[in-house]
# Entry
Amino acid sequence: MRKNTEEALRYLREGAAADTYLIGAAVGSGLTAKFARMAGIDMILALSAGRFRQAGLGSLASYLGYGNSNALVEEFATPEILPMAGEIPVFFGLFASDPTIELSTYIPHLRELGFAGVVNYPTLSLVDGKFRMALEEEGTSYSREVEAIRLARKNGMLTLAFASNPDEARAMVKAGAHILCAHLGLTRGGFIGRGRGISISRGVDIARGIFTACEEHEVIRMIYSGPAATPEAMRYLYAHTACQGYIGGSVFDRIPSENAILQAAIDFKSGGDNITEKVLSRMAGKAMSAADHADVVTSYIAENYALDIRLGDIADLLHISSSRLSTIFSAEMGTTFTRYLIQVRMEIAKRLLGGTTYPIKSIAESVGYPDPAQFSRTFKKTVGETPTAFRFRATSTAHA
# Structure
């Protein structure tokens, strides 16, 4: 880890204030930590969920009686994650209500092991209803998580707090959380733990409420999981909330492995013939959920935004009607296919306008607009100014 907490915190705050966003990876193996570090990740979270993902299970396994969460994290993170992290701060996923530990002595122990910070995980912020009430009554409570953050801050450690509503956010900020992360639920995508998540528009509403609770405090604001499963989805969340960074678990620790292992196995099984699409279609079949269909559309847009994309073409690949896919996408994403496509294209155009000297005509073509005039009209309507004005302002600010 970095030499001291102040240095690490300064590094994170400078990253949050920069044009680029902070990125954290919630991992369960030294392998993931190693390559996350190589990619320039800003922080690592050692969570029991990550270890269960490596075992082929879903993240919710960390909420079940499969083992002692804190002991599990110590067991894999101390010999694997800390050596691979180098100077990157590593946050210990602390189950604060563990009856076998005393927080006042366990937190200093974590610091002695070399962990830079603490994060409240598993967190009761994801549990509600009668089960939440029963847990709170017997002493497993979110208030214990707040106390853990307070003690970690008192012991000179970095503090990262998961919250799912404004009340939890206010409690964590008051306790001294350096980083407040809006937890949007389980990650959509991949094969393990399939299910329906919240729409991206609902994610925006939740994140706004959480960030509003800390707007008067010097706290770094981040988003975790839920519909934030792709760079395109995160760009949408960046554009519509006060978010300063993203923490990914399954998107770094599970989904890439699923895809790579599956693809390699298919390639060898088929002798090199390209049968991937047939195999995946057979695996998905009638089991594809609405969230799966929406993920296919967003992934298709991410890979083909420079082309003439039509929803009907994607619907044909999925063997459903265009109107049905349109309805599914709008319900899942909280916006129409056309608006989402334009948003993706304009966000990419903004980065190219502000970070390159490419002619506007070339940028227009690179984001799917052969007609520069149409691109300029769409850009002005979406962004609020012409591409030329945006470039002038962006480059002037960069050199100020």
